[in-house]
Amino acid sequence: MRNTQRRWIVPIAVISVAGFALAGCAEGGSSGGDSSGSAEGQTVRISGGITGSEADLLQQSFAKFTEDTGIKVEYTGDKGFEGNIVTKVTGGDAPDLAIVPQPGLLQTLIGTGDVVKAPDAVDKAVDENWSSDWKTYGTVDGTFYAAPMLANVKGYVWYSPAKFKEWGVEVPTTWDELLTLTQTIQEKTGSAPWCAGFESGTASGWPGTDWIEDLVLRQSGTDVYDKWVAGDVKFTDQPIVDAFDSLGKILLNPAYVNAGFGDVRSINSTAFADVAAKVADGTCPMTHQASFLSSNFLDVKTAAGATPKVAADGDVYAFVLPGTKAGESQVEAGGEFVAAFNDNEATAKVQEFMASADFANARVKLGGVISANKNADPSLASSEFLTDAMTLLQDPKTTVRFDASDLMPATVGSGSFWKGMVDWIDGKDQATVLSDIQAGYNN
Q1: Helix (H, G, I), strand (E, B) or coil at 437
Q2: pLDDT, tens digit, 9 for 90 and up, residues 143-161
Q3: How far apart are CA 402 and CA 130, in angstroms?
């Protein structure tokens, strides 16, 4: 294989889409636009699922671009983006650009015939700034459509270094040590050691899928993970059952959750971003979330009323969820892809900019995020943690797997899998939940 140290596996279902005509894709999306003349003074509309303060920072990332080109950018965040974007596109209300968080959803959008093939300048920008693996995720049937934008490392456990020191406990190096640590904290404090939030509007349940994906990767290995993504390993098969069983030892245990929020079922009513405040003020000893949770700490306060310091000796920090053996280094990642719905010159220039190191550096410098853009500067990240996470992603020695649910068909990855996690927390029989998730392949 071309690179045995870093392998990104794309299931055939993601890169081969049958049953729709791609000929119409080159004709432009519903927004249309004049492809001739100057783009100066034009406005490009972007839609995505990034909301709140992160949306504000994303908007700020275009300030220098607008100053240099005269092209205005208007970003609109939609909490229900994943459930709404296909309807908007097919209904003739597509934005100029969409920031798509799942390759499976991107596949569905391309299937509408409204996504425009990436122009040569965007193709070139991606070749210069990203690994071929990332480009592959935006490619369908050999045609490149969507440029990668930002990235995140999944599978971090966020905690308070000060509390760990107070309790005399250390960061675990194996899954069994993590379970022992959980029990120790519960015994020392008499309170739940974990908090979790699955609520995310129409996307509710996705934080649970990240947990399961991490456990499949760590417990069963990359081969099983790849076959699961490709649909060759079913949700009802033993490796996936084992992952749910393992997670149930934490999230279904009323003694272990839901710190600061309530009981087990409160996980489904707790917004995923709200856990940051509980970790920062010491109410929640540990939570499982991706690197992007660091941005949520910018909006909360510690018990002392200050913005949390994200550092190994700070108020909050994180360690990668450990595997069955110490020293294992498999990492799950996620990211967004920018798809265009017209061939307007201004749209193309914005899409090209969003694939560049200049955009990555501008957004990373504003705080809370990282990029896998190989020419971006990790030292610009807003914390020691994010610099380390970004360096980890850029390191060719890191073995990475893309978020499994994001690669699965949308009817499963952002459909039955998300819903299944909510049902599981609500107490539905696990075997039935797994069967229901697998049934998503038939929709």
Answers
A1: helix
A2: 999 999 999 999 999 999 9
A3: 15
